[in-house]
Design a protein that fits this description.
Elements (H helix, E strand, L loop, with lengths): L4 H13 L45 E8 L17 H17 L1 E8 L4 H9 L7 E5 H9 L21 H7 L15 H4 L2 E6 H6 L5 H6 L5 H11 L15 E5 L1 H11 L5 E3 L5 E3 L5 H15 L4 E3 L10 H4 L3 E7 H7 L7 E4 L13 E2 L4 E4 L9 H18 L1 H11 L6 H11 L1 E2 L12 H11 L4 H24 L3
Parallel strand pairs: 1-2, 1-3, 5-8, 5-9, 11-13
Antiparallel strand pairs: 3-12, 4-9, 4-10, 6-7
Helix pairs in contact: 1-15, 2-14, 10-17
């Protein structure tokens, strides 16, 4: 997102205008704290800035838009709300849906499940169960359903314009195959925001070590790996002086071993899977000198000098008590886990993107760690597609202006990120989200299957490992491409 702070604040006010469809009561969801929407009472009418190709007089005569949704604790999953409850994000979603249902005359509903497995979805679709226009499941399962021909390509659904700004363009480039998309992150799907990883830093420790210029460093483009290495080492301290680093000491950075590498390789502009000119995924590490240089240096810097504390030893790796107790300069975290675990943190923190490879790198790149894809079952009849496409398109467009800023501003800044500069940093972070297939769809073969263990053990036998991976991963990709190529 490239909005200015002022424009985002305006959009939040605009979102609250839609309280004209108000109800009351209910319970919040997704671990968000209660925030009142009383400000809506003083707001004035405004005209939406977005337009779509959907006819303004479109009428679906009370048609159905039913969602089979996954209630996961890993991401912010909410698409539907039954009523207003005074919590800002819930109410923005409720108002969006009420507005769209009234304008286009359709009825939205939701069946919320604790689990939506690939087998559950497959069984429903193969049985011809047409009870749901949208099935929400984790990215890997949705990918599998697409390869089996059980999901409609978004490009075949009327009204969906995947080139518009409310469909994540950078992620689309990573998840398309043969220039077709069977899922995409529209801005109504907040899992694409809540799955993004950020680098938290302790404002107190940064000030103690004279490192309190991170926002300026990011703005002027000098937030690089070298700067990160130096600062993380500077903050690493054996607090009790016993010569042994334990959970009671102070570290440069905290994170689980499976999260460290992908956040920083993506931040450096690297991918384990790239695309060729035919939009075919391909294994990108054979002969990749830049990746090899990154891995060897990063592993050395993190393991030598006790810079890194591995959070795998904690009851929940995402709930890092070492950072919360102000004994780490940096902490790697998914944005949704900031909401879940750090809302009551006493120590002040800031949020910045991961460092660039060097100052010549143009973009700060952010890791989108999965999320949930929304598929349209192939079993849905053709006559329902106009409604489905129109609702998904306008819901995404509306959300970009009136819902995402509420998530972005109110939840991440006002409630959790403790200073105004972090809002600007989130602009940079969300603007360039990268979805590396080796970190997501094929993480069992690449991220978790190989690199999490290698990094944990400080295994530097990279060249031989990549050579041994090449045949098996290339075979997995080839079989996947064969499946996609066979789809109508």
């Amino acid at each position: 997102m490239k909005s200015s702070v002022r424009s985002i604040l305006f959009l939040i006010t605009a979102a609250m205008l839609l309280a004209v469809f108000a109800g009351c009561g209910g319970t919040g969801s997704n671990d968000t704290a209660s925030v009142t929407t009383a400000e809506a009472e003083t707001a004035t009418e405004t005209t939406p800035a977005w337009t779509t190709a959907i006819p303004d007089d479109l009428n679906f005569d009370g048609g159905r838009f039913a969602i089979y949704n996954l209630a996961t604790g890993s991401y912010y999953y909410q698409i539907y709300s039954e009523e207003l409850d005074g919590e800002v994000l819930n109410d923005a979603i409720y108002n969006r849906n009420e507005f769209l249902q009234s304008k286009y005359n359709f009825k939205m509903s939701e069946n919320l499940q604790k689990s939506v497995s690939v087998n559950d979805a497959r069984s429903m679709i193969l049985a011809g169960d047409n009870n749901y226009e949208l099935i929400v499941t984790v990215d890997r399962d949705a990918w599998t359903l697409a390869t089996e021909g059980l999901a409609r390509a978004y490009s075949d659904i009327p009204y969906i314009d995947l080139e518009r700004e409310w469909w994540s363009q950078t992620v689309n480039e990573d998840i398309s195959v043969y220039n077709r998309l069977f899922y995409s992150y529209g801005d109504y799907n907040l899992t694409c925001y809540s799955s993004v990883n950020v680098l938290m830093f302790s404002l107190g420790l940064a000030e103690n070590y004279g490192l309190n210029d991170y926002y300026k460093t990011v703005r002027d483009g000098s937030w690089t790996l070298e700067r990160f290495y130096a600062d993380a080492q500077l903050a690493t301290t054996d607090l009790n002086g016993d010569g042994v680093f334990t959970i009671d000491d102070q570290y440069g950075i905290t994170s689980h071993n499976k999260q460290m590498l992908p956040c920083f390789w993506i931040g450096s502009g690297l991918r384990t899977i790239t695309k060729n000119s035919e939009d075919e995924p391909q294994f990108a590490l054979v002969g990749n000198e830049k990746f090899s240089s990154f891995y060897m240096d990063f592993s050395d810097r993190m393991h030598n000098g006790n810079v890194w504390f591995n959070t795998k030893v904690l009851p929940d790796y995402a709930d890092c008590t070492v950072f919360k107790e102000n004994r780490a300069l940096f902490n790697v975290v998914r944005t949704h886990f900031i909401m879940r675990f750090y809302r009551d943190m006493e120590q002040d923190f800031g949020i910045i993107p991961f460092p660039k490879w060097d100052e010549a790198q143009e973009q700060y790149c952010s890791r989108s760690e999965g999320g949930c894809f929304n598929i349209v079952p192939i079993s849905i009849p053709e006559e329902s597609l106009d409604l489905i496409g129109a609702v998904m398109e306008v819901m995404s467009a509306y959300s970009r202006e009136y819902v995402v800023p509420v998530y972005y501003e109110t939840l991440l800044k006002d409630k959790f990120a403790r200073d105004a500069d972090s809002l600007e940093m989130l602009d940079l972070i969300f603007n360039y989200r990268i979805y590396d297939l080796g970190d997501t769809i094929w993480c069992n073969y690449i991220r978790d299957g190989v690199f999490a263990g290698m990094f944990d053990k400080h295994d530097l036998a990279l060249e031989s490992k990549i050579a041994s991976m090449d045949t098996s991963i290339s075979a997995v990709i080839a079989s996947t491409l064969e499946l996609f190529a066979g789809l109508e």
